[in-house]
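Entry type: protein chain
Record version: 2
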Amino acid sequence: MTGNVQMADLKNTSSKGSKILGTSSLVGFAVLLVLAFFLTDPDIRFHPETGEEFGQFDAVRLLYLHVPLISVTYLAFIICAIASAGYLFRRTLWWDSLAHSSAEVGTLTCALVLVTGSIWGRPVWNTWWEWGDVRIMSTLILFLLFLGYLALRRAFESPQRAARPAAVVALIAVLDIPLINRSVEWWGNRTLHQKSTLSEFKIEDLTLFTLMFGILISLLVMTWLILHRFRIAWLEHVEFEQGVQAAIEERRQIDSKENQR
């Protein structure tokens, strides 16, 4: 009976704490949608000479999704790189599981960054995609690098054998993040993106609050996803080890029977 309970607990990726975190994230995300799409003001400005209206209008509401997604994408990939370095130094499954989990979540959020950016760009820049934009392309490269990281892990039957080469790839791929972040300043004439609105303090009041709230909720969601994916990755390691041990034991029994004949 005890063994069955332990096995059931082992296969359960949730806990009381993770359920509270998940519920809080869901409620917070619902509040964020209300703030972003109903309570905050659209971006409407007036030309100082002609008085003509201009701005991003309702398209600016994607700010509250796009920017938080960028923040958690950077963070997830940085966690992956730190965990990868930890694995190369300590060679423990804990670090490898954390690296794998963070990479999967980061790749998902990076894909959403590209999608929301494309949707935002259509009404603002009159194009879904600009191949010459250095920030768009460097973000796409980051996505493809970590997609390759995940594919590399799938190329090995054993999670342990995949850990070392994957860790090296992660440490190389994460170097693209500073290039993305500074691309607007370094190659301003090769991007449609503006410089950081937040760093120049051009937003305030409810707009600033909603953006900060969006980043907070995105962090909660990222934490919840990484937590569950980590437990799944750990179970994959345990299952593989149990399979190896079972195969060894089966082989020993076969050899023992053959020797008795």
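Comment: Helices lie at 2-10, 16-39, 63-90, 93-125, 134-154, 159-173, 176-186, 205-260.
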